[in-house]
Amino acid sequence: MSDTIISPRAHVFIRPSSNPSVTREFQLSASRALASTQNPVGTTAHFVVYSDGSADGNASAQAILQSCEADFAAIAGFFGGISLPPGQEGDDQTNPRTATPLHVLMDPNAGGAYHYGCNATDLYVQPVPDQAEGLMVAELVEVFEAAQNKGWACGQTNGEALSRVLAIQQAPSLASVQTDPAQSWWSNGHADYVTNNDATDQNQDSNGCGPLFLYYLHSQLNFSWAQIVAAAGGSLGACYQTLTGKDPAQGFQDFLSRLTTIAQNGQLNLPANGNPFPIGATEQPAPSSAPASGDGNIPLPDVSGAAGGIPWLIVGIIVILVIVGLGIVLMTTGALPHP
């Protein structure tokens, strides 16, 4: 699906389409006009959710309403508990609305989900009842990325990747949309979108690579989502370097080498949830500085085996020396007879 973007730029989450040749023109005024044709079906502390009146629209709105506050709390937690700024209402023509509460509207032609600007709080989702929650969360993550303002760029590889994995974290039914981009990236030569941050959210190859690398950080290297979010930077490689203290190129090569072991006939053997990690032995590289606190514990280093026996050998030697020294003292004082 190719899109002609009219200023201000729409940031999109593309679902696999049965007709990928369809061209969609995203225009703020047209999208905002949806609000006048839809009715709010529910209001929560942070959301107003609308429906277009269709059966799928009503079901999607209800699915979002049931989970939106729990999703909001979870995403806010991953971002260290930050709050969204109040923002402004916008003019419906050139300035997108950035105020809270967030408005979620149904757009049957969305092709997934979108909003106009990383901090835009009118979220447009395709009314697909079993995926509507995840589509909304993907756009919500991008609003938090803008509020954090530390490097997760919603219109680039790293920010789009984070929005996808955290949306799937909250709504596992969305995982199926990641299979095609992941396979496309691998079969097209698995280019490096880790040290290179592609300046678009519509490159399906980069949208395949980025989430897989975040799963590598989370499930292979055992960093929590909160730690990963806190390690924001100009690329996924910069995030890796902050977490591990290692060269991003080294991380990308290790990532590739592990995926190679599950590749066959130009395709990756991916599970239904889209996350193939851990592959082989897991580890937690020593960070150059203490990682931010998060939802996971840092495991203690493995001291079993021969290497783990070295400290006990030292203790044993010290004990023997103490006993010999004590014996010498006692013989000197006459407390023990000389041999």
Query: Widest sheet: strand order?
Result: 2-7-8-6-5-4
Largest sheet: 6 strands, mixed
Shape, principal axes of CA atoms? globular
- Report, as a whole number of angstroms, the end-to-end distance: 94 Å
Rg is: 26 Å
Name the helix and strand elements from N-terminus to C-terminus, one letter apiece: EEEHEEHEEEHHHHHHHEEH
Low-confidence stretches: 1-6, 18-23, 288-313, 335-339
User: What number of domains?
Assistant: 3
Structural class: alpha/beta
Helix content: 40-55%
Q: Mean pLDDT, as a whole number?
A: 85
- Counted by DSSP, the helix tally is 10
Tally of strands: 10
Strand content: 5-15%
Give the helices and strands, then pairings.
Layout: E1 2-5, E2 11-14, E3 23-26, H1 28-37, E4 39-43, E5 47-51, H2 55-78, E6 102-106, E7 112-115, E8 122-125, H3 132-148, H4 157-170, H5 179-187, H6 204-220, H7 225-230, H8 236-244, H9 248-260, E9 263-264, E10 267-268, H10 305-333
Helix pairs in contact: 2-3, 3-4, 4-6, 5-6, 8-9
Structure in words:
The chain is α/β, with parallel strands linked by helices and 339 residues long. It has 3 domains: 1-149, Zincin-like; 151-301, no CATH class; 304-339. Helix content is 44%, strand content 12%. It has 10 helices and 10 strands. The protein has helices spanning 28-37, 55-78, 132-148, 157-170, 179-187, 204-220, 225-230, 236-244, 248-260, 305-333; strands at 2-5, 11-14, 23-26, 39-43, 47-51, 102-106, 112-115, 122-125, 263-264, 267-268. It has a 6-stranded mixed sheet with strand order 2-7-8-6-5-4, sandwiched between helices. Strands 1-3 form a two-stranded parallel sheet. α3 (132-148) crosses α4 (157-170) and α8 (236-244) packs across α9 (248-260). The longest helix has 29 residues, at 305-333. Residues 1-6, 18-23, 288-313 and 335-339 have low confidence and may be disordered.
